[in-house]
Amino acid sequence: MLLTLSPKALSFSSFTLHKSQNPRRKSPNPGQFQSFRWRCSPIFVKSEVQIERDIEFETGETFFRHESARGRDLAVLSASLYKRSNGSLRVLDAMCGCGIRSLRYLVEADADFVMANDANDDNRGVITGNLSRVERGTGEERRWVVTHMLANKAMIERYMVADFFDLIDIDSFGSESAFLRDAFNALKLGGLLYLTSTDGYSSGGHRPYNSLAAYGAFIRPMPFGNEIGLRMLIGGAVREAALLGYHVTPLFSYYSYHGPVFRVLLRVHRGKLHEDRNYGFVTFCHLCGHSRTVRWDELGLMGCPCSDTKASSSLVVSGPMWLGPLHDAPYVTEMLELAKEWGWVSEGSGLDLEKLLSIMIEESDPRLPPGYTIMDQMASRAKINSPSLKKMTSALVKEGYAVSRSHIISNALKTNCPMSNFIRIAKNEMQS
Ligand SMILES: C[S@@+](CC[C@H](N)C(=O)[O-])C[C@H]1O[C@@H](n2cnc3c(N)ncnc32)[C@H](O)[C@@H]1O
Ligand SMILES: [Zn+2]
User: Any signal peptide, and if so, which residues (predicted)?
Assistant: First the structure.
C-alpha cells in the first residue's frame, strides 16, 4: 500500500527538547516534553554540511554521530534487500535526528515512502531541508513526510488506521523496550524492526534490576557482556513478540564500542513458538572461566564441571535471553554481496564492512554457544602465554570444535570447546 498519510490524518503535535543535544549529554526524557502546537514558521539552524556515502546533508543542532555510519550502512543494505525481494518499502524512522537515515533509505534503498519522525520539532528545519534532496511527491506518490511525535504515539496512530510499515527503525538513547509493543503492532508481518540500545550498564551486569524491568532478564557481570547486551535486547523482543502472538528472528546483531551501541535487526513472523529452545540462560564460572547455556527445564541442574558441588559461588547466571545465533548467515551473505555490488568494501578505514560482515557470517554457526573467550584472560588464568588466534583456531578445528572470531572484540574466539579443553589445547600449542 502506498502512502495514505495526509496532514489531516496525522497529528503534528510537537515537543520541546533540550536545545543542544550533544552526544555527551544525558538522554532526553520524553516525559519532560511539553506539548504545544506545531509551528509552521521556518526554524533557524546552524548549518554544517556533512557527507556520508556521497550523500550531502546537514546536522544543525540535532543529535548526530559519525560513528553510527556503520549502523546506518547495515540498515540501508537490509532495507534495499527487502525492497528487492518484496517490491515495495515503507519505512518509519521513529527517531530520525537530522533525518540522515530517512534520506539514505530514500536515496540508497529506494524506499517508496519514509515517515521521518523526531519528537523534537526544533529539528524540523534540518530534517525537511535534508529530505528535500528527494522530490516529496503528492497524494499516492508522496515519498516522505516529517512528523514530531513521541515514537510510541507515531506508531500507535499508524496502527490505529491500519497503516503498517515494512521497516521500523528506532534509534533511541538508553533502552528500547518501551517501544517494542507499539512497534510490533505498526509493523507488517514479515517486516523488519531495527532496534538500538545504548544501555551498557545493564548489559555489563551492573544494573540487574534495571535489565529485569526493561528486558525481563537478570544480567550479571560476565567477560562477554557486550554480546550479552545484544542477546538481552533480542530476548526482550522475543518475549514481547510472544505476548502478541508473533515470533522474531535476528537477521544481524551489531555491537559498536562508541556509546556503547547495541543494534539488532529482527524479522517479525506470525505465530508464537510453543517451545523456544533459543530463549534461556547463560552461566559463567569466575573460577575456571567456563560458560554454558541452561534451558528452562535444566534450571535445577546448574553447576560447573570445575566444582565438586553442584552449587558454587563462582557460578553466575544471566537470563533469560536469546541463545541462538546472533545473525542469519544466508541473510548476512546477501548483505555482503550487495555491499560488494555497491563498492562499499575494502575501504581500509576502521573495521572494514567486508571484514565485519564476514565475521558475522562466521559467528552465525548454530553450534556456537553464547559468549567468547578473551585470549589474554584465558592465558592469565592458565598462567601461560597466549597462542595466536590463527594457531588456536586451527587447533580447535582439528579437534572437531566449532570456532569463529567475534565482531565485538578482536582478541577473542567463540567456540563450543569447554574451557578445560581450551586451556589444554592452548598449552599444547605453546609447547609445539
Ligand atoms: C540517537 S538520536 C537519532 C539519530 C539518528 N537516527 C541518526 O542516525 O543520526 C535520537 C533522536 O530521538 C529523538 N527522541 C528522543 N526521544 C524520543 C521519543 N520518545 N520519540 C521520538 N523521538 C525521540 C531525539 O530528539 C533525537 O533526535
Ligand atoms: Zn568452573
Answer: none
Residue with cell 535444566: 298
Three cell numbers written together for 93: 524512522
C-alpha cell at 388: 595466536
Task: Note whether 194 and 100 are within 8 A (CB).
Answer: no
428: helix, strand or coil: helix
Within the chain, which residues score under 70 in pLDDT? 1-47, 309-311, 348-351
Q: Report pTM.
A: 0.88
Gap between the Cα atoms of 408 and 254, Å rounded: 8
pLDDT at 27: 33
Mutate to test the pocket of ligand 1, among 95, 115, 169, 197 (most ligand atoms within 8 A of CB): 95
- Give the ligand at the shortest distance from the Cα of 152: 1
Percent of the chain with pLDDT over 70: 87
**Which domains, from first to last, does the chain contain?**
372-432 (3.30.56.70)
Pocket of ligand 1 (CB under 6 A): 17, 28, 30, 62-64, 68, 72, 95-98, 100-101, 118-120, 123, 150-151, 171, 173
Helices and strands counted in the chain (H then E): 13, 17
Spatial separation of the C-alpha atoms in residues 245 and 185, rounded to whole Å: 11
- CA–CA dist 47, 417 (Å, integer): 54
Closest ligand by atom to 59 CA: 1
pLDDT at 247: 94
